Amino acid sequence: MTTGATAVPADPAGDPVPDRDTPTWREKLRADVPASLVVFLVAVPLSLGIAVASDAPLTAGLIAAAVGGIVAGALGGSVLQVSGPAAGLTVVVADLVGRFGWGVTCAITVAAGVLQVLFGLTRTGRAALAISPAVVHGMLAGIGVVIVLGQLHVVLGGEQQDDAIANVLALPGQLLGLHGPAAVLGLAVIAILLAWPRLPRSLPGWVRGIPAPLLAVVLVTVVAAALALPVERVEIGGSLLDAVTPPVLPDGQWGAFAVGVLTIAIIASVESLLSAVAVDRMHTGPRSDLDRELIGQGAGNTLSGLLGGLPITGVIVRSSTNVAAGARSRVSAVLHGVWIVVFSVALLGLVEQIPMAVLAGLLVVIGARLVKLAHMRELHRHGELPVYLVTIAGVVLTDLLTGVVAGLVLALLLVLRRVVWASIEVQEPPSSTAADPDDRLGGARPWHVVVEGALCFPSIPRLARRLGQVPAGAPVVVDLVTDYLDHAAYDHLSEWIERHEQGGGHVRVDEVGTMGLLDRRAASNGGPGDRRPGPVPRFLSPWSVWQAGHDATYGHGAGHGHEDEVDDPILTGLREYHRRAAGLVAPYLSDLADRQAPYAFFLTCSDSRVVPNVITSSGPGDLFTVRNVGNLAPVGGDTSVAASVEYALDVLEVPTLVVCGHSGCGAMTAALRGTGGDGVLGRWLDGAGESVARWRAGHPVATQAAARGASDVDQLAMVNVAVQLERLREHPAVARALAAGRVRLVGLYFDIATARMSVLDEDRFVPASRDRLGAGASGTPGASGTPGDPATSAIPVPAVDPS
Prior knowledge:
Blueprint: H1 25-53, H2 58-75, E1 83-84, H3 90-100, H4 102-121, H5 133-155, H6 164-176, H7 180-195, H8 205-208, H9 212-226, H10 254-280, H11 290-306, E2 313-314, H12 316-324, H13 331-346, H14 348-351, H15 356-369, H16 373-381, H17 385-397, H18 400-420, E3 422-427, E4 447-455, H19 460-467, E5 476-485, H20 487-502, E6 507-511, H21 517-524, H22 543-546, H23 569-591, E7 600-605, H24 612-615, E8 623-628, H25 639-651, E9 656-662, H26 666-673, H27 680-685, H28 689-696, H29 700-707, H30 712-730, H31 732-739, E10 744-751, E11 756-761, E12 764-767
Parallel strand pairs: 4-5, 5-6, 7-8, 7-9, 9-10
Antiparallel strand pairs: 1-2, 3-4, 10-11, 11-12
Helix pairs in contact: 1-2, 1-9, 1-12, 1-13, 1-15, 2-11, 2-13, 3-4, 4-10, 4-11, 5-6, 5-15, 5-17, 5-18, 7-9, 7-15, 10-11, 10-12, 17-18, 19-20, 28-30, 29-30
EC number: 4.2.1.1
Keywords: Lyase, Membrane, Transmembrane, Transmembrane helix, Zinc
Function: Catalyzes the reversible hydration of carbon dioxide to form bicarbonate.
């Protein structure tokens, strides 16, 4: 059994020895300082562009970037996430600036930051992840569309309009009247940003590693300055210290102010948490503490608003750059904020050389990348594309809050529909009379009524219409593939079955789902009803639970079956396999058609209650299974087991040999009581004589099992596993494989009453559900091995590893 954790060794005194894989501070700095410089070079142009799109002072973008790096980077719960002004908030901020002015917008940012801190302190971080990804992606895509539509006008040398519709209507005229140098510069930036990631791999790594936004902004700005092009440039209007402005409270509109605070807090929180989760997938370091991340983001927004900066969030572009640049700790994010402060104080004059069209070109590409075709394809597969499109339309045509609310409402309606809406189909019998006679009912080919999903009262009108298509007196098979059946639907379906049978029809209910038409009808007719403890799929259920006619509950006594319908359970099971499982397992079997490479030789008892693939969560091709009475391995006298072992080792080259015993074993009972008789069975059970003798002599496995209250038979079954492993070890092929270190032995014990597995760990069985087993978890009895021998060293137990 393997886990992702690595044990920390201890010195002789018992103190932990530092893990050599953990980087030292010197190693972290060696990686974090270069990474911070790369992120800094990416962050500066992005922060300026986002400030432009937000109708905020340009210095507000730099302030937010510095605070996001230093404060959120130091206090947040994501080690490698980088925070700063984000494109996802530009539309909201621009609307707030237009409505309240910049000072009040800063106050909204402060209040939103305080609210985020409260979110984190009350441990509601994960609750934000409950928002549908379709809404979040649709919100970002809608913001991207708004940015592109507005900034395209600036790229072309004109002025953006008041809303998205006006931008669309004015775009043809803007294209017909390109404004000379500004359009050339903006289009050049777009071309560089699109072409740079597609550079040939033959170029040196340091060339391809130059951040595309930095290259585009610097190169085009230098060209514009060298040619002295007459274009509009960035205007800072003072130093960074002069730009620090305190927040201002509004004179009124407190309701709109509160809505703005809540909007900024929720969007910034959701975007930060989603970004943190995405960043966790990019590295193998510590996972994010989402509640702490909210506290860090809230502290950053509070300080950013107090200093006159934009709202901040965790930003996936800068964060992914940080990971790709080799950052090892949060020091990289903090240092990138320090570099922004140094740049903003000492080199702010360089910013005023940047043409506005250059920043607009950068924003066009940023906005376009918020609309992702991959998200659309994924949401389409899950049936959530309408939510995505409605959210985009709402954000573009109205405002961000309206778009998000519209998306959330539609997402909830779709969830409600899935919960209460069932798919109901009626299939006529095929016209061919040469069809499989096993699919007949009452001597004729039946109609099929297939009901899938949750069958509730809203679906009853459609159910009635579909059932009305079945001719009176016709044989019918009702396939109930349902996970919920409410009382109204149960009543309607039961009454229809009774009416149809009274009219001479035959009805068989094939209940594939877990919600109980058959159980309820059995209970109402005096049967046991509700016999199943929970939603168990058919491949884990005995035939008596689901096969009509194989149990009294599902026969004529239930009011809808007929004695002449009773099929052979095996044939019924085969038909069920072909109808529902064959298509699912076929791709795997197709890959295994020409060869097999099982992971384990699995020797177990013939008992019908022991199902190897179920108890090991394995599938086709995983186990080379050998079964006999008592899971005995008399390799010296029984050629079948010996031949199976040799084939598994020499031909299939399995790395694991497993012996699995079980509770209540009939073979162990007969061997213990000597009731095997003088026939073939008795002679076979003589192979368990050594196990009986070892049990009577007080085998350590038996002693441990007795201390836990195991019965004599179950103690013997556990001892028998250990003895059979020793017998396997004596087989020449196994001995050679053990000496070569290419095989391991595993002992298992299955308690049928509790459905729990145990693993032989030296001289005792321990629960297989433990994360890690002890030093002797090789499945071989410690008394028979030598410490340090490959066969008795600490080995994980792959046969029960859920992975």
